[in-house]
Predict the 3D structure of the following.
Amino acid sequence: NAGVTQTPKFQVLKTGQSMTLQCAQDMNHEYMSWYRQDPGMGLRLIHYSVGAGITDQGEVPNGYNVSRSTTEDFPLRLLSAAPSQTSVYFCASRPNHWTDLWPQHFGDGTRLSIL
Amino acid sequence: EDKVVQSPLSLVVHEGDTVTLNCSYEVTNFRSLLWYKQEKKAPTFLFMLTSSGIEKKSGRLSSILDKKELFSILNITATQTGDSAVYLCASSGGANSKLTFGKGITLSVRP
């Protein structure tokens, strides 16, 4: 049982490049989400999904795309990387969106630098 | 707009001290209040509180929620250097129980 797995752990991009951050969970969780963490800013929600085929925007969605074709995977795409997207990205999951009996489980994060 | 405010933003204590970390929230359709500890990597879950006035306890850590005054505190007694971390408070609310995080409190425990 791996929990929430994020790849890659580190990535350096040039401005304008695109890339996909991968997130996979093996707990059959319906609810998955992406956060970014910047110094002094806490975690801010980018996008989230309440189940396969359903996604919605969070607090800071601009510049990012998501899709959810399977329960296990929730990739985050940067369409045209900008230096302002330099951050640490965390993926998280929990069993579903309508009960709060369980907290979210976080992956180990992806540290992304945009030059 | 949902908001979570933590205070202080940082503090330094010596081993053996007791610390109190504060979290206030304004969340539409509040459902729960969560505390996480973050060291080098991912946040790790500490407590989830949904009912007012009921203390959750785990070893030297404890937390309580006041739903009337919209705040929570996290207490750590007999602090150790291993308690040095960023402590994140988050509230769950809204249509899909989204989490809103505070900026975190950086705790440094000196030997």
The CA atoms of residues 16 and 78 of chain B lie 4 Å apart.
